[in-house]
């Protein structure tokens, strides 16, 4: 029988390039209108061609939602994680999975920064597919999305790091309970020799793993035996830093704060810069959910904030964000496909707001009012694909518009 891959993004292309050598695999994607071949000789087919009776195994691209017609037809569905768990068996590198709503990427990169000298490699949702990772590495550090966790039933981590869970991807999962269920799923399959670092609210989730629960950064600092004053990162990156140190503490009984402090935060996350008049603008375009924006706003709570919000909110209720904004000195500049929704919430909570629709309009309007003591913050709490190719393009355009003022 033949084997099937669903979607033709980075995850599936990596499998197609590195692991399909027997000619028994077919690849299905909505963008294929006729049967063809890719550069590796794999068969590419329209979704309508999939016959579950002729498929012995199906691996989906993580972004394909459960309600997709391909998923509904499957009989032998496994995740990318499950596939490699089965291939490598006892030779699989030690797995560290990092998940949660906001901060996964930074925590993953900080952990890799600390453990690279110990033979670790990183991948998963951070941009490097498992099929491209070194199977002989000592440690795999995997940024793990809720999509992947939803489809994973056999693979399990040696250490599971869970950041706080707040509403996100609800249009994919269906509702908040399903999203939360996916994030907590690894705990059920972990062994007595594994460790889970989780927010205190999930401390009693059934698991055989040793649980390290934290309420805030101070709990993690205590576990690590370090002082937060010695760490160079501020909120929200302080939590990410301490979680990375906690992993190092578990594995090697040490916390190299000096090495951690050499880590450089990636672009597009609370990236501060000045315009020609010396005023502060902040590019936080990677804040594609409400929790990320809430954390960004907390960072500047002592300033008046000119806040650019909006984009594709993925079906998430933005009310919690506005509840946090109502006590601050802030003005909202609404852009993107959910701008009308944002304006209604601003009215409801009595927060000054201006409907700008487009990012350049928002920058121009802020330019008229921004004082040197204030902050202009792009932290959209929404995805970018309604108006941009990616969150990175949104950030680049933001900086271009400011430079041209």
Automatic annotation (TrEMBL):
Signal peptide: none annotated. It catalyses: UDP-N-acetyl-alpha-D-muramoyl-L-alanine + D-glutamate + ATP = UDP-N-acetyl-alpha-D-muramoyl-L-alanyl-D-glutamate + ADP + phosphate + H(+). Its EC number is 6.3.2.9. Pathway: Cell wall biogenesis; peptidoglycan biosynthesis. ATP binds at residues 100-106. Coiled coil: none annotated. Residues 98-199 form the Mur ligase central domain. Keywords: ATP-binding, Cell cycle, Cell division, Cell shape, Cell wall biogenesis/degradation, Cytoplasm, Ligase, Nucleotide-binding, Peptidoglycan synthesis. GO terms for cellular component: cytoplasm. It is found in: Cytoplasm. GO terms for molecular function: ATP binding; UDP-N-acetylmuramoylalanine-D-glutamate ligase activity. One of its GO terms (biological process) is regulation of cell shape. Belongs to the MurCDEF family. HAMAP family: MurD. Cell wall formation. Catalyzes the addition of glutamate to the nucleotide precursor UDP-N-acetylmuramoyl-L-alanine (UMA). This is UDP-N-acetylmuramoylalanine--D-glutamate ligase. It comes from Campylobacter concisus. The gene is murD.
